[in-house]
Amino acid sequence: MADAPTLLTPRLRLRAWKMDDFERYVELFGNPEAAKHVGGALPRGGCWRRFLQMPGAWALQGFAMFAIEEKSSGRWVGQAGPWQPDGWPGTEIGYAIHPDAQGFGYATEACTATMHYAFDVLGWTSVIHSIDAENIASQNVARKLGSRVLRRIDHQAPFNDAVVDVWGQTREQWRQRHGQ
Q1: Beta carbons of 83 and 65 less than 8 angstroms apart
Q2: What are phi and psi of 88, to 5 degrees?
């Protein structure tokens, strides 16, 4: 079983999941507006099952999205990091940010740290971001990260009604932008 390491950025702590994260998780994934581009809002029981995905992926795959904690307050503000469910279109760096923490650049900050982690520690050679074609905010994050649209897909079930653009870049492209 792999435990999530802790990654630090100027404002954030990316860490293993805690039970204390659940109530704010429900506020994010139970909120129709906040969850509309990540599969839609879930009832509390559905949130519980999805909440358990990340610790489970860490245990079985050795990687998953990190819980994002704001250093200054200690509050959970979202999730970000490596993600690759069965049948997924590639090795993804994904994210979701709590509604009261959106608009502060946390997604870009967290994804930058987790992309370094995916390339340097996990040894990934490329990353993707599966972004709903109508999700302008996530498209802007992908651009800031240096990714570009690679292709459009019809997503897999249960999200097969969503039109998704697969954004991405290679490890070499990332390293050229970051002087490595």
Answers
A1: yes
A2: -70, 155
pLDDT tens track for 22-42: 999 999 998 888 878 777 778
Task: For residue 70, give the CATH number of its domain.
Answer: 3.40.630.30
Residue 163, strand partner residues: 154
- Alpha-carbon distance 180 to 172, whole Å? 9
Q: What is the pLDDT of residues 31-87, one digit of tens each?
A: 888 878 777 778 899 999 999 999 999 999 999 999 999 999 999 999 999 999 888
Contact 96/27 with Cβ under 8 angstroms? no
Number of domains in the chain: 1
- Which amino acid appears at position 3 of this protein? D
Distance in angstroms (rounded) separating the CA atoms of residues 112 and 78: 15
